[in-house]
Amino acid sequence: MPFSLGLPLMDDNVKKKNLPLYFACMFFVKILGPVIGLLVGSKLNEIYYTFEPPRGLTPLDPMWIGCWWLGFLIFGCLLFFPSLALFLFPADNLDETSNEEKITLERLNGDNETQIFFPQK
Questions:
Q1: Nearest Cα to 10, choosing from 41, 83, 82, 19?
Q2: What is the rounded end-to-end Cα distance, in angstroms, of the chain?
Q3: SS3 string of the chain?
């Protein structure tokens, strides 16, 4: 789940008691991602870019060109399918706040006047 949309959706749809656990799991995955990326990238660089290296060329040779781009292709395809789950959330819940919440937010921001916004349908 993309991090820019995943955290607010989690905040709105998970019980407040379980929210720290979900956030901890999300940030653990966020930290674990670069580690996995480096490990997979180092293994993919051992594969020659045409998948058939010329005779006598080894990964230690300076002429070796690794298949570094294959990781982006693999992980891009793998992340595409879980991101489709975001389309299952209703669009009207993402930006829904009540009038009382908007008035309270304006007062907290230090505005002298209070404006009442009516939701448009």
A1: 19
A2: 29
A3: CCHHHHHHHHHHHCCCCCHHHHHHHHHHHHHHHHHHHHHHHHHHCCCECCCCCCCCCCCCCCCCCECCCHHHHHHHHHHHHHHHHHHHCCHHHCCCCCHHHHHHHHHHCCCCCCCCCCCCC
CA gap 100, 117 in Å, rounded? 9
Report the C-alpha gap between 9 and 88 in whole angstroms: 12
Model confidence at 66: pLDDT above 90? yes
Give the pLDDT band (50/70/90) at residue 8.
Answer: confident
As a whole number of angstroms, the distance between CA 57 and CA 55 comes to: 6
Q: What are the sequence ranges of the domains in the chain?
A: 5-117
Q: What confidence score (pLDDT) does residue 49 get? A: 92
d(CA 39, CA 25): 21
What is the rounded average pLDDT of the residues 43-53?
A: 92
